[in-house]
């Protein structure tokens, strides 16, 4: 059943620089995690997306990005799905 | 804070989220300040496997189609800049 | 110590939207610590409601999947999320729309509190 989802997550993780991704539903429950990402982070990622939605409720869902010197986390919500992608960056 | 190109407003908050200074579209925008403080509070709980907690975050950006918010923590203050995105400019985040 | 724990729980309560109440009880549902808003339904705070968790996890362990860790009950307007920290039980009462995953992720944050409380309970 989740074969397709796993394939998508694998595809994401195979992108250059990406070392993990996590997908969660509207309740923050984990649908899947791939690579170096834990299933527990799904709740926080959904919470961040929900919080960002409050910033401009009328606009479309923004892309959230958290960065430090080596890593980046990109969060995007699409309907009831929230996706978090962990990436390593080199400046 | 000097005026950067495309900047449409900024906010400076203290650690508790109180507005210290502001200008432009974000002038005295406490609602934005609260939402962003809420997001900063959440970042401390992010995945300890993928993001070692000792590294922390330096920059938070929230990107819309034609504008974005960029948040930085510096000197125990939270700096928030709202920018419009020029399509000729490089977009900070692509997904 | 209790005051510190209470403050921490109060912080959690404010940060999560839709979270009505956090309750730490013993296995009989007798409250040790409670922080919450008045939105929490009275019935769900009663010891006889909370202690059914003990029975439920006993049944859960019969599935052959090992020890039951958490139990999520969703109702029309509420969710009740309980965590097995025996001899203690941690109960979260939230609205139906609350971020369940976020509550589950709190586990790492509350584990240190629970271990200190467990020690205190064992001593008395």
What does this structure look like?
- The complex is a heterotrimer of chains A (91), B (95) and C (124).
- Chain A is α+β, with helices and mostly antiparallel strands and 91 residues long.
- Chain A has two helices and five strands; from the N terminus they run H-E-E-H-E-E-E.
- A five-stranded antiparallel beta sheet of chain A has the order 2-1-5-4-3, sandwiched between helices.
- The radius of gyration of chain A is 13 Å and the shape is globular.
- By secondary structure, chain B is an alpha+beta fold.
- Chain B has one helix spanning 30-43, and strands at residues 7-14, 19-24, 59-63, 67-74, 77-84.
- The longest helix of chain B is centred in the middle third of the chain and has 14 residues, at 30-43.
- With 124 residues, chain C is an alpha+beta fold.
- Chain C has a single domain (2-123), classed as Beta-Lactamase, CATH 3.30.450.30.
- Chain C is built from five helices and five strands.
- Chain C starts with a helix and ends with a helix.
- The A-C interface holds A 24, 27-30, 40-44, 46-47, 50 and C 16-17, 98-105, 107-108.
Chart the SSEs and their pairings.
The complex is a heterotrimer of chains A (91), B (95) and C (124).
Chain A: H1 3-13, E1 18-24, E2 30-35, H2 41-55, E3 63-67, E4 71-78, E5 81-88
Antiparallel strand pairs in A: 1-2, 1-5, 3-4, 4-5
Chain B: E1 7-14, E2 19-24, H1 30-43, E3 59-63, E4 67-74, E5 77-84
Antiparallel strand pairs in B: 1-2, 1-5, 3-4, 4-5
Chain C: H1 2-15, E1 19-26, E2 31-36, H2 47-50, H3 52-61, E3 70-74, E4 78-85, E5 88-95, H4 100-105, H5 107-123
Antiparallel strand pairs in C: 1-2, 1-5, 3-4, 4-5
InterPro entries (chain B): LAMTOR4
GO molecular function, one term (chain B): guanyl-nucleotide exchange factor activity
Organism (chain B): Brassicogethes aeneus
């Amino acid at each position: 059943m989740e074969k397709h989802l796993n394939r998508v997550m694998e595809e994401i993780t195979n992108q250059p620089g990406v070392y993990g991704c996590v997908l969660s539903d509207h309740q923050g429950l984990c649908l899947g995690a791939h690579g170096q990402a834990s299933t527990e982070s799904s709740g926080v990622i959904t919470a961040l997306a929900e919080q960002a939605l409050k910033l401009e409720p009328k606009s479309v869902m923004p892309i959230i990005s958290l960065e430090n010197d080596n890593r980046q986390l990109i969060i995007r919500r699409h309907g009831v799905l929230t996706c978090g992608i962990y990436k390593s960056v080199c400046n | 804070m000097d005026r950067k190109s495309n900047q449409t407003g900024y906010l400076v908050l203290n650690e508790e989220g109180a507005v210290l200074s502001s200008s432009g579209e974000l002038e005295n925008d406490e609602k934005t300040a609260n939402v962003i403080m809420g997001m900063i509070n959440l970042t401390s709980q992010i995945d300890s496997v993928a993001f070692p907690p000792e590294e922390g975050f330096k920059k938070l950006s929230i990107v819309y189609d034609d504008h974005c918010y960029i948040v930085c923590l510096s000197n125990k203050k939270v700096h928030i800049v709202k920018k419009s995105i020029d399509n000729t400019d490089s977009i900070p985040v692509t997904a | 110590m209790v005051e510190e724990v209470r403050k921490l729980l109060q912080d959690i309560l404010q940060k999560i939207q839709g979270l009505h109440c956090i309750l730490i009880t013993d296995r009989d549902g007798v409250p040790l610590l409670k922080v919450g808003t008045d939105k929490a339904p009275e019935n769900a705070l009663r010891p006889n409601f909370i202690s059914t968790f003990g029975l439920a996890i006993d049944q859960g362990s019969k599935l052959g999947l090992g020890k039951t860790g958490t139990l999520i009950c969703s109702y029309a307007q509420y969710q009740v999320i309980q965590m097995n920290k025996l001899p203690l039980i941690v109960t979260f009462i939230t609205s139906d729309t609350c971020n369940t995953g976020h509550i589950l992720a709190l586990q790492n944050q509350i584990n240190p509190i629970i271990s200190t409380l467990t020690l205190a309970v064992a001593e008395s």
